[in-house]
């Protein structure tokens, strides 16, 4: 098997997700040649449902599941586990928004809080998976998860085949890895641009250096985009990024908040900060983007802390 996820794997994931994941709409942004892929409309409020369910249904039935996540993937695993009738244990950083932790508990999962580093998350998840004998489904460093996220790319091109540029948020890299793999297989000239906060730009640095590099969690923790505070892009996603992604750019906190406001006012879509970065790049960094008449921005999630949105 190739080290990289194949189009066939993504198409197989799409079949398993039929009737489970919402085929989310591309919502026109008024006055601009931009369409928003509204993954905030998934049952768990974020794209992560695709990868979580795709991973848990990729092989033989499992007895239980363990994961680590800043919130959205954890919630997706909890939802998928409930649908499949299996227990879920979620390792979550202790600085995750309470709205995301509460949602996981409401879905019946067990939550274990740890220090907000990839090392603490992965070590704890590995230990618990061994202790329980449960399936470990990482949030992004897993080809099954990447295949599930890639179904977004299939849907964008099915609805708007002439899309020239697709803007994608980058945290651990699973989302952009999947989308880029699907899109480049079907439309090689479409440009894939990653977007992340300037306060958590480890993926941008990794892209420029040609290898994954880590940021100090104390630095990435400064951004309001909690879903993108991962301090190092995954090894498997990075292999796909290096092969298929055209560029990675950054946006400021002010630009993120403005994009959240404009999405709410102009498209009636609620975006959490991490979900708004792709739109922020289009609105504030047009000069850094490839030329194109038709652009899509992935709104990856809408699980915003009410205090941030209304405070």
TrEMBL record:
Question: Which domain of life does the UniProt lineage start with?
Answer: Bacteria
Which part of the chain is the Tryptophan synthase beta chain-like PALP domain? 24-301
What are the alphabetically sorted keywords of the record?
Answer: Lyase, Pyridoxal phosphate
Task: Note whether Lyase occurs among the keywords.
Answer: yes
- What is this protein's record name? Threonine/serine dehydratase
Species in which this protein is naturally found = Actinocorallia longicatena
The cofactors required by this protein are: pyridoxal 5'-phosphate
Q: What InterPro entries is this protein classified in? A: Ser/Thr_Dehydratase, Ser/Thr_deHydtase_PyrdxlP-BS, TrpB-like_PALP, TrpB-like_PALP_sf
